[in-house]
Structures are given as structure tokens and as C-alpha cells.
Amino acid sequence: MSMEDQNKIDETLQDLPMELHDQVLIWLSRLQEKNSSDQVQFIKDEKDFAALVKLIACSEFAANTFLQNWDWFATQINLQNFNSPLDQERLNILFSQLDNKNITEDLYLKKIRQIRNQCLIHILWRDVVCGCDLNETLSALSKLAEYAIISAAQYASRLIESRYGFIPFEDHKMPINILAMGKLGGSELNFSSDVDLIFLYPENGISNGKDNLPADEYFSKVARKVVSLLNENLDDGFVYRVDTRLRPFGDSGSLVYSYAALENYLLKHGRAWERYAYVKARLVFPDKQTNERNTIINSIIKPFVFRKYLDYGILESLRELKSMIAKEVLRKNLFDDIKLGPGGIREIEFIVQSIQLIRGGNSPLLRQPELKNALDQAVKEHDLDYKIGQQLYLAYCFLRRFENYIQCIRDQQTHKIPHSTLDRTRVALMLGHETWDKVLGEYAEHKAFVSQQFSEIVFRGQSNNSDDSLSNDLKLMIKNNASQDEWNEIFSNHNMHQPSSFTHTLSEFFVFLKQQKIDKITYQRLEQFLPNTLSILVLNKKSHVTLERVIIILYEILRRSAYIAFLNENRAALERLIFFCEKSIYLTEMIARTPLLLDEILNPSEDDLEELSGKLSKKITSNAYEGIEKQTERISRFQRNAIFHLAIADLDGNIPIMKVSDKLTRIAEITISNALKLAYQELTIKFGEPEFLINTVRRKASFGVIAYGKLGGFELSYGSDLDLVFLHNSEGEQQVTNAKNSIGNDIFFSRLAQKLIFLLTTQTSTGVLYDIDTRLRPSGKSGLLITSINAFKSYQEKTAWTWEHQALLRSRLVAGDSEIKIAFDQIRQEVLMYSVKQESLRNDVLSMRKKMRLQLDKTDKRYFDLKNGSGGIGDIEFLVQFLVLSYAQDHPQLIIYTDNIRQLDALFLSNFISEKHKIALQEIYKTYRKEIHLLSLDGGSKMVSVKSFNTKINTVTNIWEHYFLEK
């Protein structure tokens, strides 16, 4: 070695810790012994030379691989191949060397090991020298393993086929399928990890060779050969250690399984810990029908892993699993294990996987094997706070890099913190820390954070009630089957309101439970749930009513006790549920019908109705040939979820009354519009689209849904029915649909209206969408269900009563074609301006109001009917309608809007009412409506205390008399 080269080495070593100098010098000496001096001196670039020295110092595996493959390494450096990631194109080139059908097994074994080691050098260089991000490293390591497994499977299949033939299957050879589990399944393989594999085949059959075999024996031979090709430790090392213990029944089970056998095992024998394992299941060696195989595998695995309900019960299993691991950590002294020890990688994986298992059944985007993607999605869906998710990923990155650097030292599968000074120095250098103490400091920070989050997420709800003496007393009473008198005594001692009624209801529920066949797990969950619930209800002002409502929900979730586990795990969720049960029978019944909504009570999403509307409409259009029941359920889910989120915000007082009504109105509009689209699609598939002929021009006939009343006036409440009228514009000649089996347009539109009503009123899994009232159509019940636009105009101008013009004032198109909207708006304006009977208007309005009070008003000395009582909502609406209709002929601005609030604004701006009256009527109207909303949520009548509303009643009455009696 020249003096120049020696100086270069000395300068490079100065940048390395002293502990690593001897490693480099010994390696250089070995390299000189093995190669001629001209080969040793080829690295002229100082950066490349320094990088080489750093890698030699840090990794004995790298140092040995360089010695064995010096010519290859020299070529890579000269071509600057390490400057870019190890990509699929490069892997294709490398592994294509093994595709030669004439390659001997000995040569194959040697070549695949050389390729593996060379690729690991490429990945290690990219990581340690180039500082690539963790995703690149883990992805490259995983992709390398996939290529090696696929190559081994192809080679093994050729060997077995040469003797036993192949098994015919769907016009080609039946393939072996290889399911990757663990870190390979998640594309997160370690530097020196084993690979967890499960071998599968589609179905039973017999090979067609001279020596034929049944499928299980045939593919067992293939699988064993794959394991041998990868696992055997030869002069060139191994390719991958293969672990097959995650297969059904573990070591005691067969090596290969058919799809049917796997499905049967998961259904009958699958355990909770296996659900965690199968979260990361992924096919790495399917056959040519990749998508089809993936679909089949997913149809078997996904239902086992992800349940349709909120599966908080999985946390109980995780605690058991964690307890087993903790015992193993203690027994094997694994506290310094960065994978299994406290605050280690496994705890981060458990946090993410528990969220996936709990909510993955209802959130498809959580069903992915990659930890980072699943973690990001959990943050997006608010299952994890953004900062917590970010910190968990930083901890994960540090721990995984730490793990990889420990393993790359000697290509050993270890997760223990090194004890030797040499190895600690190596790891510190690769992690970019000056000293080992700084490594330990960062490790301690991440470890503490992960442990804290693991405890809070996995062990939540376990200690909340340990100091609650009442809960503990109640738990003992449940276990000891306490008598009704004993229950009555404890509740009386806590000053509960009406303890005897409460006790009676509780006792009836206990009798019901005894009559049911409740499994052990459900009963254990109830033993935790009931004391927690009862201890909260003791202090509840409506304890008896609230208990009855909680029991309504319990009846529905007993058979799916994971919901009970959810409430046990989330004290805040339990308290919120009890709050909603106290305030609203409407929400109680909604949750009972759809327990999935329980997940929404803690973090109700802020619905963007327009975004949801677009997605819903797109799904209905793109799935036109899907069953109408499924499509209706899709609409129903949208409507239910949107109203549920709104009701929660409303009860929390986070949303003003006007916005509540606006949103309820918009939800109804979206629901009607999409139901109409669904009904129209179904009819046009059968009969074509309706058309008509005018002056030899063929036109498409249009249809529209007109809303009256609360929907028309943007004042919808919970549980409101919808007043609808249906119009079309078909006229002229040849009014028929444009298909071979055509029908008349009148028949088409009549069926369309009937179908729409059916979809909106049919019983779905979440109940009826809306009750529909069509009596406001021309001629009421005796009239046709659907009316032409011309007939509607004629009726409104010549026949309609004053009360029908009052109703028309609060009407508008909510679904259908723009042609109908334009025509209807024109008719509405002309009728309200020119067809109102002005000479009888005052008497007609007063007469109708008097009639309605006599028939509907339930006011008495104590209670006031908010809607129908004198001085109530009805008076405000009739007064506004009277004033608008009185002056609309000369002031069209009065009829632009259909809601009372903006009509009052218009009346004030046009000087027909005073500002004082306008403000008073608007504020009282909003107060009345807010009260009606709350009463609707609780299923009550529209009756309130006269005493509480007396001032407002008198104000409305005085204003009514001012405009009706003093003029």
C-alpha cells in the first residue's frame, strides 16, 4: 500500500470513533491478502472511500460481503448504482438469472444467496451512507424477500412438476399460493428478519404425472422445498429463515391448506391473537389470476379479522396477550429487547392493530397491512390525536432503525440492546449520535411515550372505577343476586328520585337476563357495565326513564356484546350515552336500531353534506344495476348518520336553531334527490325514458318534487313528515317512453312517484326514512297523485282555496329537473301575485285559523300548545302569510323566499311591519322552534308550561290583534 493510500486511510479513520479503527485496519489487511494491490487501490473518490470505511466499521456482515464480492462492489461504485434505491427493475434483472430451467440446484442455492447478500449491501449503503428514509429501507427489504420467495416457489414447483406433473385447474396449472404474515405482510421487513409464511392451494385435486399425488401431498412437497431453498445455511449463508408456525394449528398442523380448510379453521378455531396476526396477511406468490386470488383470500380472511360491529372486546384479548408477553419478558429477561420489551415496537404495533380491529369492520381504509398507512388513517379518522400519532411514528422509526442497525452488524435476528462497547459504538454511529448515552437518552424518551400510550389505549377503563365504592357495592349485589328490597334500600340511601320505580325496572331486566342464554364473556362484560351505569344513574334527575332507555339499547346489543365492551372501555362514552338517553328517546331508538352509532357519540364528525351528497349520488349512478335494497340502505345510512351527528351537536348546544333546521332540510333534500334518482334508474332500465312530441320536435319529459310546509320553508324538525306534490311537463302527442316495451308517460310518472314514496317510507334496517303526506296536491285525496304543470297552474289560478295559496307561499322544488323548477317558480309567482282572493283574504285566514284551533289546540290552564295554541307558532305563520299575500301583487320581493324568518325581513324592508314587531316575532318564532326540536328529540308532545312562555304568548297575541283586529 502506498504512502498516499496510507495517509488517506489515516485521515478517514480520524472521523471514526477510536473503538472502530482496528476493525477497519484488520479488514484492509484481509482485503490486501485476498486481492492484488491494483484492485485494492481503485476507490479514488474520497466520499466513496469514507463511506466504505464507515460501513466496514459498522457491519461485519458488510465487511465479509465486500471481501467475497470485491469485483461486484467495484462495479457498483463505478456505475454509481448505490446512488438510487434498489428498485423493481434492478430486482427483475438480478432474479432473472435464476429463471434458467437448466440451472442445477447447487448453483441455484449459491446464486440466490449471492443476490440476497448483494442486495442487502445496496440497501444498507442507501440507509447508512445515503441516509434514505425508513420507508425506503423497509420497502426494499420486503421487496427483496418477495422476489426471493417467488423465485424459490417457481423453482420448487418446476422440480416437483418434473416428477409428479401438475394439477389441472381452470384451464391451467393449479398454483401454490403463499401468504406473507408479520413484517413481510406489512412490507416492513427487518434487515435480518425471518419470514412468516402460510402455504395455500385453491382446492383438492390430483396431479397428472407418472407418479400422481393428491393436492395436499403435492403442495406439501412444494412448500417443503421452498423452505429448504430459503432456509438452509450454506457456505454463502441463508436466504431467509422461514417460520411457518402461524399456519392453522401451528406446528401440529399440516404445512399446506386449501382455501376451504383455511376458512373452516378460522371460523371454528381462529383465536383472538390470530386476528392480530392476520391483519398483516398478504399474498406474495399468487398465480396469474392475481386479483381473483386476492379476492378469494380476502373473502376468507377479512371477515375473520374485521367484524361489522365496533369490536372493543378485542382489547380484552390484547390484555391477555400482553400479559403473556410480559411474563415471557420477565422469564427471559427481555427488558432490553426493543421489540418485545416495555415501550417497544410490539406495543406500537398493538396500538395500531387494536384500532384496526375495533373499527376496521366499518372503516375499509383501516384494513391495510402497512403500519404507517394504518396509523395515518387512524389519525385521519380521529381514532388517534394527530400529535400522538406523529410521536408514535417517530418512536416507531427510531426503534426500527435501532433494530435494523443491531441486526446488520452480523446479519443476526436479534432485538436486544448490545452490551459490548464495540457494538454500541457501531449503533451510535449509524444512528447519528456522538455517544451511546445519547442513544439511550432518545431510546428512553420514546420508550416512555409508547408505554404511556399503550397503557392509556389498551388498559383504559380498567382503573377508572376501582376507587368508586358505590360501583363496587353494586357489583357485589349483582354477583350475589340481591333482592328487590336490597336494591331499593341502596338507591334510597343515595337519595335517588323514585327509587321503587327504578328498582322495579331493574329487577324486570334481571329476570329477562336469567331467561336468556348469555355466554360467559357477555355476562362478565355486563358485570362491569351495570355497576358503572347504575352508579351514574343514581344522581340522574330522570333516573327511572333513563334506565328504561338504556335497557332498550341493552336488549339490542346483548347478542353483540362487543358494544358493551366498548362502553366498558370508554367511561366518557358511557356517560355520553346516558346523557343522550336522558335527553332523547329519538336518539335512544336510533342507537338501538343501529348500535354502530355508539362509535359516533364521543367524536361525532362534522358532516360536509355537499361532499357526502356528491359521493352518495356517484355511488348510486355507478351501481345502477345493483339491487335496489342495497342502494336504499346506502341512502338510509347517509340520512341516519347525518341526522344523528346533527342531533348530538344540537343537544350539546353547539349549533343554532336556524342551522339545525337548515341542515335537517338539506339532509331531506339529498335523501329525496337520491331516492328519486334510484327510482328513475329502475324504471328507465325497464321502460326507457319518457318523451313527448310537440310540433314534430321530440323532447324529454321532466319530473319534479315540490315540497310544502316545513320542508318547503327550510324549517324541518326531527321526525317531521314531508308534504310533497309531484309535477311533470309532458304534453302534446306521443307521450310515451322510448323503449320497445314503452308505456304512457302518465303511467311512468305515476309509477315513479309511487316508487319514490315507497323508497322513502319503506322499513329499512335503520327504520323508515320519512313519513310522506301528499294531501296538498290539487284536489287533495281525491286528486291524481301526479299532476301536469299546466293542470297545476290551472288549478291554482281557478280552483284553489285561500289556504292552498297560503301553503303555496311555503313551497319550492326540492328534487327533479330544472325545467320543472323554472315553470313552477313562474306559476308560484303569478298565482301569489294575481290569483289570491283579496276581498275574502282576511276572513278566510281568520276562519281557517279558528277552525284549526278548535280542532287541534290542546292548551289548558297549565300547558300551552306551542304549535296550535293562541299566541303560538301557528299564529305567527298565519300572520306572516296574511301580510305577504295582502301585498304581494305590488311587491313581488315579498314572495322570493319561502321561510317565515326571511318573509318577516321582507315585510319590514317594505314597511308593512315595524322593526319592533319583526324582531319580536323572529326571536319568539326561533325560541318556539328550538323548544319543539328538543321536544321532538325526546318524543314528547308540543306542550310546554304556560307559566314559562306567558310573556311570549302575550306578545304574539298582541301583535296578531294589531294586524288583524285594528285594521
Kindly state the number of beta strands.
19
Mean pLDDT: 89
Whole-Å distance between the termini? 118 Å
* Shape designation: elongated
**How many H/I helices?**
41
Q: Structural class, judged by helices and strands?
A: alpha+beta
Q: Sheet with the most strands?
A: 5 strands, mixed
In terms of DSSP E residues, the strand content is 5-15%
Helix percent band: 55-70%
Question: Over all CA atoms, what is the radius of gyration?
Answer: 38 Å
The poorly predicted ranges are none
Structure write-up:
The protein is an alpha+beta fold and 967 residues long. The protein is built from 41 helices and 19 strands. Helix 2 (21-34) crosses helix 4, helix 23 (499-515) packs parallel to helix 25 and helix 25 crosses helix 27 (571-583). The protein is elongated and about 120 Å long.
Short description:
The protein has 967 residues and is of the alpha+beta class.
Describe the secondary structure blueprint for this structure.
Elements: H1 3-13, H2 21-34, H3 37-40, H4 46-58, H5 60-68, H6 70-79, H7 88-96, H8 105-129, H9 134-164, E1 168-169, E2 172-173, E3 177-181, H10 182-185, E4 195-201, H11 215-231, E5 242-243, E6 256-258, H12 259-269, H13 272-278, E7 282-285, H14 290-305, H15 314-331, H16 345-359, H17 371-380, H18 386-408, H19 421-431, H20 436-458, H21 469-479, H22 484-493, H23 499-515, H24 520-537, H25 543-557, H26 562-569, H27 571-583, H28 585-593, H29 609-622, H30 628-651, H31 657-687, E8 690-694, E9 697-700, E10 703-708, H32 709-712, E11 722-728, E12 733-737, H33 745-761, E13 763-764, E14 767-768, E15 772-773, E16 786-788, H34 789-798, H35 802-808, E17 812-816, H36 818-834, H37 841-856, E18 863-865, H38 873-887, H39 900-909, H40 915-937, E19 943-945, H41 946-964
Parallel strand pairs: 4-5, 4-6, 11-15, 11-16
Antiparallel strand pairs: 1-2, 3-4, 3-7, 8-9, 8-12, 10-11, 10-17, 13-14, 18-19
Helix pairs in contact: 2-4, 4-5, 7-9, 8-9, 9-11, 12-14, 13-14, 16-17, 16-20, 18-19, 18-20, 21-24, 22-23, 23-25, 24-26, 24-27, 25-27, 25-28, 26-27, 29-30, 29-31, 30-31, 31-33, 34-36, 37-38, 38-39, 39-40, 40-41
